[in-house]
Write a structure and sequence with these properties.
By secondary structure, the chain is an alpha/beta fold. Helix content is about 35%, strand content about 15%. A 6-stranded parallel sheet has the order 3-2-4-5-7-6. Strands 11-10-9-12-13-14 form a 6-stranded parallel sheet, with helices on both faces. The protein has a 6-stranded parallel sheet with strand order 16-15-17-18-20-19, sandwiched between helices. α4 crosses α19, α13 packs antiparallel against α16 and α17 packs across α18. The protein is globular, with a radius of gyration of 26 Å. The N terminus and C terminus are likely disordered.
Length: about 625
């Protein structure tokens, strides 16, 4: 095992000649190589199998060390933001750490959005960025940017590496930090000096992480206290969030529901953690959730938050949220507990581990004291399900209802399909109307809400499917025409890397979710939300006669320009046939342009009632009137 060298994380520029410092620290037992070669070797020794990125001057030594003998697959993207999102999609689909490598300056700043996105959604990711040489730091050198400083608020941890000998240890630590505790992104900023210096490489590395000991197992009497609350509850609800997905705790959540009789409601990232066919699953709660899920939470006397953080899109007005409920909050991050809602029983630990210990404790309590009769509670819940099923309006102008498109995609899809979405109305329709069969089958930008996330995340998911599931898990991307255009250049990556992603664009010619808010809160003032699709200038017409379409862009031709299959759909019959064909094509990407009704609303946000322009809703407003606790 290699001995550790002095910690370089957050270090200032070394004092004195660089040559003398590196020579003094050099270890002479091991294989001699450059820092750039050590980057590649360390990733291989860590078991990294897939890497996403885009080269540039300050990271060229690392790219020079990537060759045909490199053990990991490298996927070249067309924009650094896409490298980050692809690493995210890969991480969610596989449960592994996503890795991307980009250059300094604009390359590094381009990936900041993906880093912030991964931080909000607790996605394990290592981002390796190039940096100018040590002696050039602080001189405003060409393509210099303080990426450690820039990303400090949105990373789990950061490193600035100024010495080659630190590279294996730092990457080992970054990989460990990213995937343990509450997962998140770690930035490793590599100076060009460190990449070109020589070191003596050995493996494994001894990590220096004093004080980093994430709590995974519950301590004290909290489990017995939680079991007692379950024993006293006649209206419990399991409120399951993305943390349960990161912990791979689907089986544990299902078991807890079976033992206690409690219904399951999920946040957006947790869709599919328990199959939708399970009668205990009420769907998504919150602003765009089902009435049954939100209504159950409003009436519950015990709310069990499992890897969830009481996000504002779930709670709306905090004082009005589950007002009569006692709270058990399970989370691996102690900072989340009590942040938004005070917990009666706080439990810090890994969700799967905690539930493995909690469920037997509840069974012991029930054996002594009996199990509460929840029949009356389920009568209330089933009444809500019957009265307020998820529904939508058909288009009055003959265009497709986007919700119908999503339902048809779900109906025809393989049960093992991995679903990915961009951000906007289509994201909510996908979350509402897809029939999720398995955990890790839903990938979407939740906390940050990043438009443009969909296509690169789908590419990462497809790489993960190819790697871990032999491509037997198809990947469908549901995107909007606005969100898709932010990263549509990644069609080139999909084509050249033979990634048969299937893309459904719900094309309504507007920024749909923003326009919906304008409808609700800004008196139909549609400022800067019309994409002018179909309103091209005379002379820009595409096609002739009955086939005349004025599209900017023409998504079908765009797909074909990138070597992909493109189809355009106007009717239900055309849609059914196009989806069938897409499911049969497995040698290249397929894009279907679905023409959908632009005035379609995401339900039941309107019904649930929104109180102001911040879209802070009160769950008790009609049609939920009369079902509050």
């Amino acid at each position: 095992m290699a001995l550790p060298t002095p910690l370089q994380a957050f270090s200032a520029v070394p004092k004195g000649p660089v040559e003398k410092l590196t020579a003094d620290k050099r270890i002479v037992n091991g294989e001699k190589m450059t820092g750039a070669q050590a980057v590649v070797r360390t990733l291989e020794d860590l078991g990294v199998e897939d890497v996403f990125g885009l080269p540039g001057g300050a990271i060229l030594p690392v790219y020079d060390a990537i060759n045909d003998d490199t053990k990991f697959r490298f996927v070249l993207v067309r924009h650094e933001q896409a490298a980050g999102h692809a690493a995210e999609g890969y991480a969610v689909a596989t449960g592994k750490v996503g890795v991307c490598i980009v250059t300094s300056g604009p390359g590094a700043t381009n990936v900041v959005t993906a880093i912030a996105d991964a931080n909000m959604d607790s996605i394990p990711m290592v981002v390796i960025t190039g940096q100018v040489g040590v002696n050039a730091i602080g001189t405003d050198a060409f393509q210099e940017a303080d990426i450690v400083g820039i990303t400090y608020p949105v990373v789990k941890h950061s490193y600035l590496v100024t010495s080659a000998q630190d590279i294996p240890r730092v990457l080992s630590e970054a990989y460990h930090i990213a995937r343990t505790g509450r997962p998140g992104p770690v930035v490793v900023d590599l100076t060009k000096t460190a990449q070109t210096e020589e070191l003596y490489y050995s493996w494994p590395q001894r990590m220096i992480l004093p004080g980093y000991n994430p709590t995974t197992k519950a301590h004290g009497r909290v489990l017995s206290n939680a079991a007692k609350l379950f024993g006293q509850s006649y209206r419990p609800v399991l409120y399951v969030g993305g943390g349960a997905v990161r912990s791979d705790a689907g089986e544990q959540v299902k078991r807890l529901s079976e033992v206690t009789g409690a219904p399951i409601v999920t946040t957006l990232p947790a869709r599919g953690i328990v199959p939708e066919s399970d009668p205990a699953v009420l769907g998504m709660l919150g602003m765009h959730g089902t009435i049954a899920a939100t209504g159950a939470v409003q009436q519950c006397d015990l709310l069990v938050a499992i890897g969830a953080r009481f996000d504002d899109r779930v709670t709306g007005s905090l004082p009005d949220f589950a007002p009569a409920a006692r709270v058990i909050h399970i989370d691996i991050d102690p900072a989340e507990i009590g942040k938004n809602r005070q917990a009666d029983v706080p439990i810090v630990g890994d969700v799967a581990t905690v539930l493995d210990d909690l469920t037997p404790e509840i069974e012991r309590y029930q054996a002594i004291n009996g199990k509460p009769d929840l029949d009356a509670w389920w009568d209330v819940i089933n009444d809500l399900r019957e009265k307020y099923p998820m529904q939508y309006d058909e288009s009055p102008d003959g265009t497709l209802a986007p919700q119908w498109v999503v339902q048809e995609l779900s109906r025809q899809a393989d049960p093992s399909t991995i679903w990915v979405s961009g951000v906007g109305q289509h994201q909510m329709w996908a979350a509402q109307f897809i029939d999720f069969h398995k955990p890790h089958s839903w990938i979407s930008s939740g906390g940050l809400g990043t438009m443009g996330y969909g296509l690169p995340a789908a590419l990462g998911a497809q790489v993960g499917s190819d790697r871990d599931f032999d491509g037997k898990k198809p990947v469908w991307l549901i995107d909007g025409d606005g969100s898709f255009q932010m990263t549509s250049e990644e069609l080139a990556s999909a084509f050249f890397d033979h990634l048969p992603v299937k893309i459904a664009i719900l094309n309504n010619s507007v920024y749909g979710m923003v326009r919906q808010w304008q409808t609700l809160f800004y008196k139909n003032h549609y400022s800067a939300t019309n994409l002018l699709d179909g309103e091209a200038r005379q002379g820009d017409v595409i096609g002739e006669g009955e086939n005349e379409i004025m599209d900017v862009p023409d998504f079908v031709k765009l797909a074909e320009a990138y070597g992909c299959v493109g189809m355009r759909v106007f009717t239900k019959e055309q849609a059914e046939e196009a989806i069938r064909k897409a499911n049969e094509i497995n040698d290249r990407p397929v894009l279907i342009d679905f023409r959908v009704w632009k005035d379609a609303m995401v339900w039941p946000m309107v019904a649930a009632g929104a109180s102001n322009s911040d879209v802070t809703y009160k769950p008790g407003v009609q049609p939920l009137k009369g079902i509050q606790a």
